[in-house]
């Protein structure tokens, strides 16, 4: 093991993790601006997109379930869900497990919208340069997951 492969001491780790956080913020903001420039999915907010992605990937869910997965407040997720429902992209259906908490299901129109968004994101992601390798991306994902664990105890409400 050489010096670059050894775990960093806390001070050095803290500085480098801060740099990663700064890069994530810039990447997130620039990426969203780029993705919002397309005509076919214009008007889909980041919050509504997140709701549609969850419903697309996992099927019908309650607002509290979505809020837990996204680590966002139920109130915020409810507003995003209401927006998706108002646009015809999602609908509330009865929840056999809980009378007071409806299931939210994506509609065919919502599927078309999120499929277009994901296709555009995929096309943009294919343009990432740097001759990245699978092991580099796996290492990046591992680092981000470890950073995320730092905040597992944070309550979004």
Description:
Helices cover 60% and strands 5% of the residues. It has six helices and two strands, in the order H-H-H-H-E-E-H-H. 15% of the residues are buried.
Primary descriptors:
5% strand, two-stranded antiparallel ribbon, mainly alpha, 157 residues, 2 strands, single chain
DSSP helix count?
6
Roughly how much helix do the residues carry, as a percent range?
55-70%
Give the spatial strand order of the biggest sheet. Answer: 1-2
Query: Using DSSP, what is the number of strands?
Result: 2
Q: Give the H and E element order.
A: HHHHEEHH
Task: Write down the Rg.
Answer: 19 Å
Beta-strand residue percentage = 5-15%
Largest sheet: 2 strands, antiparallel
Distance between the termini: 44 Å
Detail the poorly predicted runs: none
* Shape, principal axes of CA atoms: globular
Q: Which structural class fits the helix and strand makeup?
A: mainly alpha
Précis, in short:
The protein is mainly alpha-helical. It has 6 helices and 2 strands; from the N terminus they run ααααββαα.
Topology (SSEs and partners):
Layout: H1 10-35, H2 46-58, H3 63-70, H4 74-86, E1 90-93, E2 103-106, H5 108-125, H6 134-149
Antiparallel strand pairs: 1-2
């Amino acid at each position: 093991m050489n010096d670059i492969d050894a775990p960093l001491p806390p001070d050095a780790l803290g500085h480098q993790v801060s740099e990663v956080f700064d890069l994530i913020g810039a990447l997130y903001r620039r990426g969203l601006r780029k993705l919002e420039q397309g005509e076919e999915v214009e008007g889909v907010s980041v919050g509504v997109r997140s709701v549609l992605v969850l419903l697309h990937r996992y099927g019908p869910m309650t607002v509290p379930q979505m809020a837990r997965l996204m680590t966002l407040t139920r109130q915020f997720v409810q507003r995003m869900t209401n927006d998706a429902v108002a646009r015809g992209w999602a609908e509330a259906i009865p929840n056999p497990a809980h009378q007071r908490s409806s299931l939210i299901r994506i509609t065919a129109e919502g599927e078309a919208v999120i499929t277009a968004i994901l296709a555009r994101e995929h096309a943009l992601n294919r343009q990432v340069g740097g001759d990245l390798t699978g092991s580099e991306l796996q290492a990046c994902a591992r680092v981000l997951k470890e950073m995320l664990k730092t905040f597992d105890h944070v309550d979004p409400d």
